[in-house]
Amino acid sequence: MSFQNILVPTDGSEAVKTAVAEAVELAKTAKGHITALFVKDKYATDAAADAAVGYVEEQCKAAGIPFEKTVLSGVPAEVIAKKSADHDVIVMGTLGRTGMKKLLVGSVAEKVVKLATCPVIVVRNSE
Questions:
Q1: Domain containing 15: what range?
Q2: Is the pLDDT score of 117 beyond 90?
Q3: CATH code for the domain in which residue 33 is found
Q4: Which of 12, 19, 111, 112 is most exposed, with minimal Cβ within 10 Å?
Q5: Confidence label for 88 from pLDDT (cuts 50, 70 and 90)
Q6: Average pLDDT over residues 35-48
Q7: In the predicted model, what is the mean pLDDT of residues 48-62?
């Protein structure tokens, strides 16, 4: 299976940085390209979207990886899952929450794994 068309959902958090590094390495190996996806919910600003996709763009440019960005509005897990139809793989970060925090906040990554139509690589933040 070839993972050339890589989707990297980003919210600009520290958890995403580890996932971006993994996606860049995967793209190098597969001679692929990366699409950074920022999903604007009702609280997100344009500045947050620009910063989040900007980080992915910087990492891709530094590694010589072809890059494009997409900013869409909606419920993050649902939008990411919908975009999975256009990609070979999703590489995304997670904070690795457990217990009460996970119960209260939920996990976008977990929902994406259930809903996506392509493989999902979930990279846990190293903190």
A1: 5-124
A2: yes
A3: 3.40.50.620
A4: 111
A5: very high
A6: 92
A7: 96
Helices (H), the chain: 14-30, 46-63, 76-83, 99-105, 108-115
| Phi, psi (rounded to 5 degrees) for 68 | -145, 160
State how far the Cα of 92 lies from the Cα of 29, in Å rounded to an integer: 18
Instruction: Report the alpha-carbon distance of residue 60 to residue 43 in Å, rounded.
Output: 27
Q: What is the mean pLDDT of residues 27-41?
A: 96
Tell me how many domains the chain contains. Answer: 1
Nearest to 69 by CA among 57, 87, 81: 57
Confidence of residue 14 (pLDDT cuts 50, 70, 90): confident
Give CA–CA dist 127/98, Å, rounded. 14
Residue 32 CA to residue 46 CA, distance in Å, equals 28
Contact 62, 125 (CB under 8 A): no
